[in-house]
Each structure stands twice: as C-alpha cells, then as structure tokens.
Amino acid sequence: xxxxxxxxxxxxxxxxxxxxxxxxxxxIYGATVFTxxxxxxQSLNHPLTNWDAHSARLINSIETFGWQLxxxxxLRQGAExxxxxxxxxxxxxxxxxxxxxxxxxxxADLSQRQxxxxxxxxxxxxxxxxxxxxxxxxxxxxxxxxxxxxxxxxAKEAILINDKGHWLExxxxxxxxxxxxxxxxxxxxxxxxxxxxxxxxxxxxxxxxASVREVTWDGxxxxxxxxxxxxxxxxxxxxxxxxxxxxxxLFYPPTHQSLTELRRLF
Length: 266
Prior knowledge:
- Helix content is 27%, strand content 27%.
- It is α+β, with helices and mostly antiparallel strands and 266 residues long.
- It has two domains: 5-104, Aminotransferase class 4, branched-chain amino acid transferase, N-terminal domain (D-amino Acid Aminotransferase, Chain A, domain 1); 110-263, D-amino Acid Aminotransferase, subunit A, domain 2 (D-amino Acid Aminotransferase, Chain A, domain 2).
- Strands 6, 7, 8, 9, 10, 11, 12, 13 and 14 form a nine-stranded mixed beta sheet that branches. Strands 2-1-5-4-3 form a five-stranded antiparallel beta sheet, with helices on one face.
- GO terms for molecular function: transaminase activity.
C-alpha cells in the first residue's frame, strides 16, 4: 500500500500524489538529488540515523551542481513530522531548493535476508550503468533497470560493473568482501557512490583496529573472497551467498563468522 502522507515544499500533505509543472527539470531530466535514511529510535539525532552525514551529502551535491540550497529548518521540520509515521525517509531536493520527503517501511523479509543472505546478478549489460555514480541523483535508471533484470532472474539484487568489468556496488548499496584477515570494499576511484553506511563502517572498523582496504574488484579478486555482503543505511548488512553471471556462478557462505564483525556496528 502506498504511503498516504508526505512532505513537499513546506507542507505536510495527505495523499500519495505530487503535482509538478510540465517543465519541471526533476521530472524531465531526473534533475534532483536525494538521500535515504533509516530513523533509529524516532530521532534524527541518533548516531546511527546520522542526520549530519546525510545533510552533508545533499549539500555537497547541490553545491557541485550549482543549485539553490533548501531551507534546512523547513526540511528538518518535514523530516520530524514524517519520522513519527515511518522508519525510513527519502529526502529529495529540486534545483530551486524545494524539498520533497516521503516515508516507507522496512522490507517485510529484512530479518530473513540478513540471516540467510541473497542471490545477486552480475549486471554485465551496458544499460545497467549508473549516471554520475558518485552522486545520488534522480536519474537512477541504470540501477533500476539492473534491479528489475535481477528480479526477473530470481535474484534479489544486481551488482553493477564498469567498462573494465570491475565490480563496483549493488543497485542499492556498497559491497564488502572478506579474505586473508581483512575487509575489502571497492575503491571510490572506480566510480561508486560513497555511501553513508560505507563511511560509518570504515570508520568503525578502523577505530576498532580491524583491517579494511579499498581496492579494485576484478574477476580474479572476487573468486578468492571468503564472504561477500552489501550494506546501506536501511538494510544494514545483507550477505550475498550466490552471484549469477555469464561465466560461472559464484557461491559464498552467508553465515561466515567475519560477517558478525560488520553487524556489530548496528
């Protein structure tokens, strides 16, 4: 069922439809930036909610594109209104600074995915590449197409690659792999989104004297991994037990003991 309440341009609106002008760049070109956050204990100030990091992500994108900054007090007011109804918020900013906030619920099968892991599909088709991958823009067609194709093949996620075939990220999160006593995550230089949860995990692992490295994930590297997972702010840590690809299906244990270390942050 679609949410029946959202926040748009300074107002709380009952319903599930938004009205936009026909020349709206966000509608025509996907000219918006957004961030999605999970609300812990119904508080924007909770460390795991990480409101400051999500705000910084929006500011960085808006300033890079030369857009107008939103009214931050009004935006926070909208978030405070909706967190009373939803555990997950998606905050969208238009080029002229208008804010649009929607809420949703956690996936019904989240606990099962976190425990049992999922199957992912390696998205080797060119149309599954993301536009401006280091930013979360409204033009998310490549990632969306990849996820749709993965679901058609019976997988829950898609793994995006670059033109060299290097694994980058999933359609909705960042990748993590374990081997030789260390955690590995794809390098930002390869063209990935520097996720908020990814940064939290890197900082947390470093502070706890755990080994974590940013490297290129090529075909040979991934074959030797002992475990793979993906993360984002909403789903936390999801193991990947099977990767479907054209050459060889890869299998990884979803209960590998290393995954416990990642889960400790949450």
